[in-house]
TrEMBL record, chains A, B:
Keywords: Oxidoreductase. Residues 19-115 form the Pyrroline-5-carboxylate reductase catalytic N-terminal domain. Gene3D superfamilies: NAD(P)-binding Rossmann-like Domain. This is NADPH-dependent F420 reductase. The keyword Oxidoreductase applies. PANTHER family: DUDULIN-RELATED, F420-DEPENDENT NADP REDUCTASE. It comes from Geodermatophilus maliterrae. Transmembrane segments: none annotated.
Amino acid sequence: MTDAQPTTAPEPTVPEGLTVAVLGGTGPQGRGLARRFAAAGVRVVLGSRDAERAQATASDLAAATGGDVTGADNRGAARAGDVVVVAVPWDGHADLLAGLREDLAGRVVVDCVNPLGFDKRGAFALAVPEGSAAEQAAALLPDSRVVAAFHHVSAVLLEDPGVTTVDTDVLVLGEDREATDLVQALAGLVPGMRGVYAGRLRNAHQVEALTANLISVNRRYKAHAGLRVTDV
Amino acid sequence: MTDAQPTTAPEPTVPEGLTVAVLGGTGPQGRGLARRFAAAGVRVVLGSRDAERAQATASDLAAATGGDVTGADNRGAARAGDVVVVAVPWDGHADLLAGLREDLAGRVVVDCVNPLGFDKRGAFALAVPEGSAAEQAAALLPDSRVVAAFHHVSAVLLEDPGVTTVDTDVLVLGEDREATDLVQALAGLVPGMRGVYAGRLRNAHQVEALTANLISVNRRYKAHAGLRVTDV
């Protein structure tokens, strides 16, 4: 049926030729996200402190997915990306971003870092002076459009070639509608995954911290837990 | 098939004759939970500051569900309950519990309070000195077994007689396995609802605060959002 007056807005899409850079692209989370984006036909540039290591991982992912994946140091990747995913350990988060302020200007920066501590009783949320990793990124990158997303996606599932659909919603937070729409669309490229808008950055802390609860779920149920939002 | 050697532990169940008290039982969340428990055949005592108001609401719920629902003041309800659900506004949370310490001794106390603020930009998490409402309850009630649960269940859905299944998981947190098992079983009595263990009370803050994100989801998508945990 053709409909001259669509009653809903068109679904946001990922622009042709978009490049996604992944900082910390040689860690499990970054590598896993890069694999899925590459498999979905998105051009990916992996960033790492060590450019050679990034290139080696990129070659592996290109071979595994048939996608366009290259490697660079973090600065090179930041400059190459239209969307730049930050998937570094919390420990190095502030230092890395502070050093890339100009390189990341104008980019959509997607923070998926979970500030967690671990002890004998499991994982717990760390206090972050800015409120959350995402708000820290926004404070350090005033010329970027910071979005928080991809916190709860299991790296184990992302990296498993036998897992063809990643059965989870991705909570997407930010102040800039165009940027959150784009990141939702990017999530939607991965089979099984759906991007759901879930509020402003001031509400990012609990989304990051909830990863500690999912780790508890995983331990109790021997699972790789994800989240689905119902009624949406 | 009979199986002499079951391979999994038996599902925890709700003991026959268990009484659930709901403090703040005349508010939307308390009333909604009471309705669902009563409909599932659990004896319910509604508590309120105003015993007459609790009795009036209880009569309505008994008539609507065919269940066993009575009303009392909050102290009377606390004493009557084996499991006591705390569904009061955050404002009165500490004062109420501090005054009921002895009445609640030995009880499983289920805190479902979300410490949230609201402004023009929507909902946001309030800072709680103890970390979370549940940890505040645990600090004020050293002789009770405090569990955190039922934070994300939409009162609108709970109270809607046309909604026959409540399509959501309930994250259940606590230190006491027997108590969290019981609360999971209680959640499981409501059609569509499932209790999922989701960690210790030190990780309750983000579960409470996530309600702010679900409010953002509800606004954006005109929904009554709930959560499902995948792979469990």
